[in-house]
Amino acid sequence: MNLKLSLRTASHHVTWFLGTRFPKTIPLVFVVGYPKSGTTWVSQLVADYLQLPWPRLSLLPVGCPAVVHGHERVWKSYPKGVYVLRDGRDALVSQYFHLSRLIAPGDHPSLTARQRRAFPAMINKANVRDNIAGFIERQMTKPDSSRVNWGEHVRSHFEGTNPNVVLLRYEDLLQDGEPALASAMSQLTGQEPDLDRVRDTIKKFSFQQQAGRHAGQEDRSSFLRKGQAGDWANHFTLEAAEIFDHFCGQMLIRTGYERDRSWVRSCGRKASAADGVGQLTPAEQR
Question: pTM for the complete prediction?
Answer without folding.
Answer: 0.85
